[in-house]
UniProtKB/TrEMBL annotation:
EC number: 3.1.3.-
Descriptive protein name: Cof-type HAD-IIB family hydrolase
A Pfam entry, by short name: Hydrolase_3
Source organism of the structure: Streptococcus raffinosi
InterPro entries per UniProt: Cof (IPR000150), HAD-like_sf (IPR036412), HAD-SF_hydro_IIB (IPR006379), HAD_sf (IPR023214)
UniProt entry keywords in alphabetical sequence: Hydrolase
GO molecular function, one term: hydrolase activity
């Protein structure tokens, strides 16, 4: 029997096909994991609203989900782990953007809420991609101490603008804040140590399961650290070669039932 007692998986390019559908074979193996008492935890840069419907379709409405790459971990609707951004630094960031980069679309994520100050073309495009609708509100007001915690910001503009902004921010004094590109024109802003790797450590600790008994599955470079850290890291067949090199094993692609295959072969078999 396998010694795997916990599975943590990426979503896009992993459990979703290239047509953004959940692999039907994966849905079929979920009851077997539940019977074996092996939790299946989703980890993604997505918001709770982008993750919970997927968890429900998998039959996992009460399993933890690591949203915003681990900045917020929910069990059902209960927050069990969170790493909000430092509001003082975010206020400084907003002031800097308003004077030096006024064209940048600023999107704030707090729990399940997506907040922006105007429905510009970038936020409209993002709404079309995610199916979510933003709350229109003054940004500095949103970042006030009396408001709820902020788990992520997403800055969007033309690639040249965003990449220039990224380099500027990395040279500035934001000791509690991390900046990374998720697309050539998407700049993500989180608390300093937020990552899927850190989420793996925290979720494993939450379940009191050693890393040697955790399987992680992913397809992209932001998944590589958690693939390398887990006892069994599985890269998707559609992953870049650099990601495959960080994993223990490579499964089939997301269009060829790769996650279901990995679970059947290395956990349930």
């Amino acid at each position: 029997m396998s010694n795997i007692r916990l599975i943590i998986s990426d979503i896009d390019g992993t459990i979703l096909t290239s047509h953004h559908q959940i692999d039907e074979q994966l849905i079929e193996v979920m009851p077997e994991l539940e019977k074996a008492k092996i939790p299946f935890v989703l980890a993604s840069a997505r918001s709770p609203l982008g993750m919970q419907p997927i968890a429900h379709k998998l039959g996992l409405p009460e399993n933890p989900i690591a949203c915003y790459n681990g900045a917020l971990v929910l069990e059902g609707n209960r927050t069990i782990i969170e790493h909000p951004v430092d509001k003082t630094e975010i206020q400084e960031l907003l002031s800097y953007l308003s004077t030096d980069y006024p064209s940048v679309s600023v999107n704030i994520y707090s729990g399940k809420d997506w907040i922006t100050n105007q429905l510009d073309r970038w936020s409209q495009l993002e709404a079309g991609i995610t199916g979510e609708s933003p709350i229109l509100k003054e940004l500095q007001e949103t970042v006030s101490d009396s408001e709820p915690p902020i788990h992520k910001l997403l800055l969007i503009d033309e690639p040249k603008v965003i990449q220039d902004l990224h380099q500027k921010l990395l040279s500035m004094d934001f000791p509690q804040t991390a900046f990374y590109l998720s697309k050539d024109n998407y700049l993500e802003v989180t608390a300093k140590h937020v990552s899927k790797e850190h989420a793996l450590l925290e979720v494993a600790k939450y379940y009191d399961i050693p890393l040697e008994q955790v399987m992680t599955i992913g397809d992209n470079f932001n998944d590589s650290p958690m693939l390398a850290l887990a006892g069994l890291g599985i890269a998707m067949g559609n992953a870049p070669e650099g990601v495959k090199e960080t994993a223990n094993l490579v499964t089939a692609s997301n269009d060829d039932h790769g996650v279901a295959q990995a679970i059947t072969e290395h956990v349930l078999n």
